[in-house]
Amino acid sequence: MRVAAIDVGTNSVHLLIADVGPDGEVSVVEKTREQVELGRGGLDRNLLTDDAMRRGVDAMIAIREAMDSLGVETADATATSAVREAQNGSDFVRSVREATGIHVRVISGLDEARLIYLGVRPELDFSRGYALLIDVGGGSIELILCDATRILAAHSLPLGHLRLTDAFVDSDPPTPEALSRVRAHTHHRLRSVLADIPPGVAGTLVGTGGSVRTLARMATLMRGEPEPQHSHGLVLNKGDLKRLATQLAQVKQARLSDIPGMDSRRKATLPAAAAALHQIMKTFDHDRLVTSDRSLRDGLLANWILRNEPELALSRTVVWPRMRSVLRLMERYEADQAHCTQVRDLALVLFDSLSGLKLDSSARRTLEYAALLHDIGHHIDARDHHKHGQYLILNSRMAGFTAPEVAVVANIVRHHRKRPKRSDHHFAALPRSDQRKVEILSAILRVADALDRSHNQPVIELEAEDDGTSIHLLARTQDEAHIERWAAERRVKGLSSALGRPVTIELQPAESSVNPPAEGAPQVE
What we know:
The protein is of the alpha/beta class and 525 residues long. It has helices at residues 50-69, 81-85, 89-100, 109-120, 161-168, 176-190, 210-222, 238-248, 253-256, 270-283, 296-308, 321-332, 337-353, 363-373, 385-394, 403-414, 425-428, 432-450, 482-499, and strands at 2-8, 12-20, 26-35, 74-79, 104-106, 131-136, 141-146, 151-157, 204-208, 235-237, 288-291, 459-466, 471-477, 503-509. A six-stranded mixed beta sheet has the order 8-7-6-9-11-10, with helices on both faces. Strands 3-2-1-4-5 form a five-stranded mixed beta sheet, sandwiched between helices. Strands 12-13-14 form a three-stranded mixed beta sheet, with helices on one face.
């Protein structure tokens, strides 16, 4: 069934159209937004201005036309902060229904928080404990403390970027005093939340909303990292956000578009959004936030599925989002499952057998993901499949991964055939610690891949003797495995270089793999 989810927000109207299969599988058909600024000029009086209502109705008429042209069978539409607080909000809802036939439900702040949670939850990584979702809208900010199965606490505060700009910013660029008032007001409103969401209780901060994603994109480019291909999994550090907030406060709106990553539609309100978000991160004692490009409209779709497909167990798709992303890419790009699984197993045996790697605890999982994905580039062309694999990973949405984590996995895949070079701009853009991780893990992956060069899985056991000064690898095989022997002897040189120690390898047919002579056959002494 083709379903539309419509979020009528204070700043923008968002549309998501998707096909939902009988098993609940979602395939996105269209995703768009219209910036109508419903709340502009009336939030302080709890009114929608005539111009704002006209812009909103026009946007909904355009959405109705898009739905009709794409064959939408059913739609769920909600309105949030601006409409629910406006004295004439019901007039707007009635005007939309008369003009389009679409019934817009006005929802509470807590309902809004629940839908945001449903939309973002499938892509959250709860390995660090609770997650705190921060949804920055035009009229309100939702704060949602959650785990994989439930919301533990939720608050909706009138701290949206459009509202804060209207209330405190009256100059271009904004004065330091104005932004100081934004931070002070944000700090004051957050006090009511701290009893439910104490600082430090969440292991991960996840930011949603266009302003958060724009700030994260700008911070990514400010750090000298490559241009992000999408807005999911970007990392926004508190220090980078503070520098951005300072920069935004010193530049006139007409020049803000010159800053790399800036969304010109947000020039007027981004300074206030940056000041408020920095105060939120400071209040909750977090130095890092990760973005999600999912939002309330995704939650509307998830909620529709829950209502209409009660047999679905949505939680089944939540627990391991990173591995699910990897397996989906393998399936989409028709990876050789047997080969990739064999290479993964061999790579992990090598990793576990080597001492003194000096890598963080996540390196083993990173190696596993890269090993499973190392050959997906064959879907495009075998000749440069390592380069194509990197491209596919960098340009895919990978739930559960941050953008830096995706970059590391993509670089390992890129270099599973040859050692990294400083001339490769994707590798050079990585922090030095990640470059070292790529050097070691790609060297391990090259050896593991060589041990299944034929894609016939001849290696049945792999052992490593590591005495701290040199390493000897022994692979027991089902047969002579000549091609694996040739490939592995070439690849261990790179592993030796990466580890800074001599590495040797020996392939030996396993005794159990030798077929006994047939009955009556001559015996050879």
